[in-house]
Amino acid sequence: MNKFLISLVLFTSLFRITQAQKVSDYTIDVQFFPQDAQMWGYSVSDQSFMRGNAKIEFSEFDTDTLTFFLHGELKIDSIISDNNAIKFSSTKIFYGIDYSNIGLKTIIDFPDTIKKNALTIYYSGFMNPSRARSLSDYMHIDKKEGVFLRGYYYSIWFPVFQNPGEDDYEVNFKQVKVKLPKSFNAVIAGELLSETVEDDIYSAIWKPGIIKTSNIQCTAKRYEIISRDNIFVYFSDDRQSGEKIISFTQKLKKLYYSTFRNVQNDSPLYILEMPEYGNISSHNVIGISSDLYKGFDTDLFSQLTIAHELVHPYVSIPVTKENSFSALLVEGFPSYFHLYSLNKISNDVKTFNFKEYMKNVENSYITKKRTGKDRRGNNLPSEKPILKITFDEIGQYKDSFILPDRVRLFLYHLLCEMGEENYDQFLKELFLFDTMNYDKFKSLIVKYLPHYGNDLNVWLNTNEYPESLHIK
Ligand SMILES: [Zn+2]
Known about the structure:
Blueprint: H1 3-13, E1 21-32, E2 38-39, E3 42-43, E4 49-61, E5 66-71, E6 74-81, E7 84-85, E8 89-94, E9 102-108, E10 118-126, E11 140-142, E12 146-149, E13 170-181, E14 185-187, E15 191-198, E16 201-207, E17 209-212, E18 218-221, E19 224-228, E20 231-235, H2 239-259, E21 269-274, E22 280-282, E23 285-289, H3 290-294, H4 300-311, H5 326-345, H6 354-371, H7 394-397, H8 406-418, H9 420-430, H10 438-448, H11 453-461
Parallel strand pairs: 1-13, 20-21, 21-23
Antiparallel strand pairs: 1-4, 2-3, 4-10, 5-9, 6-7, 6-10, 8-9, 11-12, 12-18, 13-16, 13-17, 14-18, 15-16, 19-20, 22-23
Helix pairs in contact: 2-4, 4-5, 5-8, 6-8, 8-9, 9-10
This protein binds zinc ion (ZN).
């Protein structure tokens, strides 16, 4: 996600959380494989053991009880608020939001004993692999292999105050401190503030900032690291593939800079070699499973993931939440312009055929319009014109309907009508905009395509997809 827009618009979305208790801040401190591993006073193997505490601050309470969840093999050691122990009760439940399908549900019956709207939860236990939910049993912690955890929806390694099924939302993660035996390196999300080794213990402090609870992933391994230009690649032993990934990413950054908005993008990007099934994209962390990492040259999926994550700041135009263009700009533009750019840099590579790719987008769009369902048979959000998708609905439409198909087809149609040279000129002018409205956008387009006014209206204000706008 692009920092520029976060500060402008996402910040306000913190206040739309419709929850009984509103979590505002997290400060997390965890240790994996501590030498003095013990539970209930008995020493245990430290092989897949962790211990942590999370300070949670609330903006308000308006309930009689307070409930939170953790991975099912963890247990609560104590809950403290303003130096006082808080009473609680825990039970194991079926919890489909954790990879093991088992969760630890903890209830605090008298939240009024919580002082200063803050409490610290101390917890410990194991995170073994499980195939209960899917084949992707890579999520677990193991002293030999490493730490492979995600956040809400996957592996709940810190207390989550969301009932299963409740939507993910953004919270301020002030700090996440991770301790491991030395020679490990850990990646969370956001900014890495410090890394130190003392008494054979490695410790890293990350500042994720305002971020969704599902994006607080935690990966640690005995990694090697290479970096250039704020791009970091964490890998096991294949340095050459890491170098290729860095060159690819640098090439893209240069192209983005010259094609779109001239922003200096200094925010770090972390690319990690992961176990099988570990293809992830969490904020500024991209995981690439080991086989794809080694075949990066020909793996379109990993290239597209990196290209998409990088493109956000270069194709942003500042708008408020209320602006009817907000969805189009925040996730519509970035869902297309990385494709356009990948096509430009991969002329010599046969892995990416832009037109064929767009033809597939068109076919799937037409099918989705007809059936109202996605490829897996899930219901899609209701069809509506591009400019009718509100800021709050971005999450629903992103990666599912309208934003990843109609918007792409629209921007591709402009390219086909203008021709690449004029299109690039048009983009240069477009990304000088300091804000966006219909008239402004229209005047720029008709400067290049004088008769496009009606088509523009069809694309943005209707659901129609007439033959005349199809890919030729
Ligand atoms: Zn995106």
